Each structure stands twice: as structure tokens, then as C-alpha cells.
Amino acid sequence: MKGVLLINLGSTEKPDPESVKEYLEEFLMDERTMDFPYWLRSLIVKKIILKTRPEKSAANYKRIWWEEGSPLIVISERLRKKVRDLINIPVEIGMRYGEPSIKSGLEKLKNQGVKEVILLPLYPQYTMSTIETALVKAKEIQQEFFPELKLKTFSAFYDDPKYIEVLSNSIAEHLQDLEYDHLLFSYHGIPVRHERKTSFLPQENKLNEEKISYRDQCMRTTSLVAEKLNLKKGTYSTSFQSRLGIDPWIKPFTDDTVEEFPKKGIKKLVMVAPAFVADCVETIDELNREAKEDFFNAGGEDFKFIPCLNDREDWAETIVEWIENPDEENILQLV
After folding, report:
1. Is the domain of 175 the same as that of 293?
2. In this predicted structure, what is the pLDDT of residue 200?
3. Are residues 233 and 135 in the same domain?
4. In terms of residue numbers, what domain contains 30?
5. Are residues 10 and 82 in the same domain?
6. Whether 296 and 190 share a structural domain
7. What pLDDT is recorded for position 208?
8. Which pLDDT does position 199 carry in this prediction?
9. Confidence band (pLDDT; 50, 70, 90) for 159?
10. What's the per-residue H, E or C state across the chain?
11. Is 274 found in the same domain as 208?
12. The pTM is what?
């Protein structure tokens, strides 16, 4: 029997410094997140970041925390239930960091009689710190604890027609009857060196053939949505958020971009975050609070953030369509 594991990044268990510290240590000590030699990564993370960052990050989480828990986890569970209601096979969620973990998700599937697991990393674009680390972790866990399970995975869906249609529909609904000057597509940023390392994917799939970088994947998503919505040139653009440290990160930066807009006469801004499919601290707090404040402080007059796909009905239906009718080019044996 087949089963599905929906994988996302994860979240701290509680919005307090101790929980955030535990989460950040697991996240930042991952060699695919911070790809320095172990000794240097350990020094930076344990001696610097974990001494200063948890309290500030906990405050950010506390601002966005829902009564049911972390928005990312709550939304992921809601999506899981909707997908499960639409399909006749088990569906579970697993986070790369924190709980519910990839291990617990695979265990739940195994206990329901599943022999073949379809992994669906909920990241539209491929990077070493998103899809790659999720698949590597899943394979490690499978080999150690569930050798009898067979794993398959979907490739990045940044240009999948069904994804583009759902994303475009979501944006169009929020733009309807809305007066605005500019639509900004803000994607999660990565270090420049990560682009060099993962422009060529380890799997033999369409990205490998196209030799496309993360930045180009993001630009492609923007371009396809703009085409779908008939957006006029100059009324939309792409930027990248969440840089960390002093290393070069891909540009243009979201914070710099929104601060420059009012100087160019862009006073009414709409923002969307297509690197995320579920709202989380990076969208709710970093964009819909920090970027919003930056924009207003620079002279902006109106700001609207378009929520992620979250648990939209058409998004759940798209996932089911992928599972039930997979394109053979897009579903792969995990080696």
C-alpha cells in the first residue's frame, strides 16, 4: 500500500527562548543549512548565535503564535486532513526540524500498513537547505529505522502548471478590486555559494537537465504567474529575504527593495511569498510586520500581504492530483 508524507521545514515547539534555542541548534547545525566545516559551524552556532538569537526569535514567534500552536504546524495539519479526505491512502506530515518529525511521520505510515511512501517536500523551489536536506534526512531515517519502506519523491514544482494556476488564483483573488502600484514577489534568500553548489541537482530529473539555479527557479515562478495574471511589465518584481551573517547572499534584498519603493513613487505595495506554501514566522512576522514597517517608515501609504496557499481547497486538490496522476518525469525513486 502507498502512503504520502508531506514534509516542511518545522517550527519551535513553544514560543519561548529555551524551545527556540533547541530548534535553532538543530536547524543551524545542519550542514546543508550552514555549510561550514563542523568546527566553524559549531563555533558560530553554539558560541554566538545561540547566545544571542533565541530571545529575539522567541519574541517573533510569540507575536505570531496561535491558540492551537505554531501556525506552520497547524496549517500543515489542516492541509494533511484535507488531502486525506480527498484520497484513499494514508497521509501524514513530517518536519525536517522539530516535531512532528520525519521519523514519526514514517512510523505512522508504516503502522497503517504502508510499504511505499511518496515524499512531497512542500518547497516549490529546490535548494540544498530545503528539498535536499529533507530528502537526505528521510533516506537516513528510512535506512536506519524502516529499511522495509520504499521511498519516492516529487521534484521541485516551481514551474508546475497546476501549482502556477493555484498560486495565480490565490493572488488574483486578493488583487481583485484592489488599487496598488506594485506587486513584489519575495522569496527566501540563500547564500551565493549555495547556488553554486545546487544549480545541478543530485537526482536525474528535469532540473538536472535544465541546469537551473535557485534564483532562476524563483524568477521563472514570478514570470509564469505574471503571464497568467497578465501583469504589465514594471508593475511587479522579485526580491529575496532572510539573509544571515556576512556572506554574500543573492540579491536584490527584500528589505532594501521595499525601502526604495516610495522614492520611486510606489506608495501602494502588495507582497506575496511564493517560496513558502504555509504561513510561518518568515511570512507573518518578517514580511507582514517588519517589511511593512520598513515600507511605511520610508514613505509608503498602503501595504497588503497575500497569505500563502496554506490549506486552500484548490491547493489540497492539486496535491491529490499529483499523487493520483504523477508525471513520470516528476516522481523519482529516492536512491
Report:
1. yes
2. 43
3. no
4. 2-156+312-333
5. yes
6. yes
7. 45
8. 52
9. very high
10. CEEEEEEEEECCCCCCHHHHHHHHHHHHCCCCCCCCCHHHHHHHHHHHHHHHHHHHHHHHHHHHCECCECHHHHHHHHHHHHHHHHCCCCEEEEEEECCCEHHHHHHHHHHCCCCEEEEEECCCCCCHHHHHHHHHHHHHHHHHHCCCCEEEEECCCCCCHHHHHHHHHHHHHHHCCCCCCEEEEEEECCEHHHHHHHCCCCCCCHHHHHCCCHHHHHHHHHHHHHHHHCCCCCCEEEEEECCCCCCCECCCEHHHHHHHHHHHCCCEEEEECCCCCCCCHHHHCHHHHHHHHHHHHCCCCEEEECCCCCCCHHHHHHHHHHHHCCCCCCEEECC
11. yes
12. 0.93
What band does 230 get if pLDDT is binned at 50, 70 and 90? very high
Determine the average pLDDT of the residues in 84-98: 97
What is the per-residue pLDDT across 233-257, written as a single tens digit (0 to 9) for each? 999 999 999 777 667 889 999 999 9
CATH number at residue 143: 3.40.50.1400
The answer to whether the beta carbons of residues 215 and 195 sit under 8 Å apart is yes
Gap between the terminal Cα atoms of the chain: 20
Q: Are residues 206 and 326 in the same domain?
A: no
| 203, pLDDT greater than 50 | no
Number of structural domains found in the chain = 2
Question: What b/e readout covers 47-66, taking b as 16+ CB neighbours within 10 angstroms?
Answer: eebbeebbeebbebbeebbe
**Do residues 41 and 94 share a domain?**
yes
In the block, which residue shows the cell 514534509? 7
CB 156, CB 126: distance < 8 Å: yes
Q: Which residue has the cell 555559494?
A: 193
Confidence of residue 206 (pLDDT cuts 50, 70, 90): very low
Using CA of residue 154, residue 155, residue 156, residue 160, what is the dihedral sign? Answer: negative
Cα(82)–Cα(301) distance, rounded to whole angstroms? 38
Percent pLDDT > 70 in the chain is 93
Residues 57 and 165 both lie in one domain: no
Q: How confident is the model at residue 210 (pLDDT cuts 50, 70, 90)?
A: low
